[in-house]
Structure formats: C-alpha cells, structure tokens
Design brief:
Elements lengths: L2 H8 L6 H11 L47 H9 L9 H7 L2 E9 L5 E10 L3 E10 L5 E5 L4 E5 L2 E5 L1 H10 L2 H4 L1 H4 L1 H8 L5 E8 L5 E7 L7 E8 L5 E8 L2 E14 L2 E11 L2 E14 L17 E3 L9
Antiparallel strand pairs: 1-2, 1-13, 2-3, 3-4, 4-5, 5-6, 7-8, 8-9, 9-10, 10-11, 11-12, 12-13, 13-14
Length: 322
Amino acid sequence: MGEQQQRDVRRGRLIPMHRAFAVLASMLYATSLLLARGVEPLVAGAHPSTDVVAEAAGGLQVERALLPPEAGLDAQTILQRAAARYPNMHTGRVADILRGPLLLSYSREILTPHSLLISHLLYTWPPERARLELRVMEGTGKDSISLLSETGGWLLVDGQRVEVNRRELQAKTTGYSLQSLLKVHLEFPDQVSTNFGADKVSYEGRQLDESNKMLHLIALTSSESRPHIVKIGIDAETFCLRKIFYRGAAGLSAFSYGDFRIAVPSLSLPYRIELTRSGTREEVVKIKQIEVLAQSPAEMLDPASTHPPARRGIYNAISTEK
C-alpha cells in the first residue's frame, strides 16, 4: 500500500469498491461492457492501478489448450444465451428488490503488497438513504460509519461525528452497492443487445479456467476501450459470465467470477470476485449476504443508535457451485 493510501486508510475513509471494478465502466466505449470495478480502499485520494490482474497459479500464466469451438454455436448464440439468464432489471420484482431497502454484506481482501481485510456492510433505503459500515478485520486502518439521509451526510470515526458533503457521500455509498459491485452482470443483457454486434465479436474456442470450468471464449474484435478488453469467458455449461480479459500497461489481466448463487428470486449472481495481475492474485471479494430490509431507516441513520432495523424477509442464497 502506498504512503498516501496508508494515510487515507488511517483517516478511516474508504474508497468505493466499484472504482476498482468500475474502471471498465468509463472505458468500454465501443464494447460498453460496463464492469463495475469496486475494490479500492474507500479512502479519498487512493486510486489503485487500472490494471488488475493476470491469474495466479493455474490462471493466465499457465498455458491451457484452446479447444475448437463447439459445433452449432457461434458468438451471438452464446451471448444471447448468457443474456437470457438475467430477468428484466428495469421493471418487475427483481428491479423492485434491487432498488431496496436492501442489506449488502461482503468482505474485500487485499493480498499484496500488504495484507488488508475489510468488512463492508451497506444498508440502503430508497430514494437516497444509506448506512455504510466499514470494519478493518486485518491490517492497519480505522473503522468507520457513513450515514446518508435526505438532509445531509455524516462520517463517524473514533467516536467523532463529522458532517461531509452529501453529494460526494452519496456517490461513494452508491459505489459500494450491489448495482456497482456486479454492474457487468446486471447490465449484461443491455450491453449484448446494444454493443455486441456480429461485426464486433468472434467465437475463439473453448478453454478450461483455473477452476476447471470449460469456458466459451468470445473475442472482441472491435474495441476502443483503454485498457483494451480482448475477450470474455462464458461458462459452457451454465452460460454464466465468468471471465473478463483485457490488456493494459501491465499486460494481459482478468476479472474472475465464481460461487454463483440465487441472490434473489430468478437471479443468479457471483458471490466471489478475484482480481489478479502478472501471475499474482491480488484481491478477493466475497459477498456474504443480500437481504431485503424493513422500511424503517430512522434509527439506522441516527449516529447515537447502533441497532439494526427490523427484517422484512430474507432470500436464502443457495450456492450452485460444487
């Protein structure tokens, strides 16, 4: 961790995870895959490298045989099948659930250059209220609580309450949301229909990934993004989006998605995200809980209260991984 980043972490402010994942959202002009990079320590001024990753042992650094394309399939058919896994994200039950009220709990582990494990707990209530709790479980840093209401924003660190710019805090809490963390999956159908035309993609073949999942590799033949996205990996059995490959200053990199579960009814999402670079796995994000909340945020937005809200119901997340 750089000196500036260490100072920021010690101040207890956190940088949204979506920037580490979200770097692609601003880069995918032609392909517009809109991957939400969300893993930077949530600290103002800390901007990690935009080059995330080449798989660790068993990943991109290991030569794996590229098998011929599966007979009867082409790039468009594979992409359409992958997009069909997702329900309508704009209307209906799933859209209502994602708008909140919602609880999202996940951990982010930074493996290099210094070990750091942060627990994220984000409560959101529509239209723009949120409570973000960040706990440093391992490594150096300060716990913090951010509160966002209709009237203002506050940061609590070491028992001190500081009023902060509401608009900036809203942007940061949005960066920690499920929609930012898994933007690439939630918006995948829209991107397939608008940006993955037949003249921009080609079916390269099949290949086993580091977890021995067979992937259809779809190469992007026309991309103006920087870093340059070169291909995506679709699970040959389930048609889940499992890999994003791109080339940046550090060479070939990838985001890996695994542990797919039924997050909410009719919606399977990855509960594990890995970022690696130059043969080293650098960061791991694990989603622990996605839960629908009661519509009663007042006590959660009171700095004097630490009581969680009443629960309206829980959607059990069942892993589909073996």
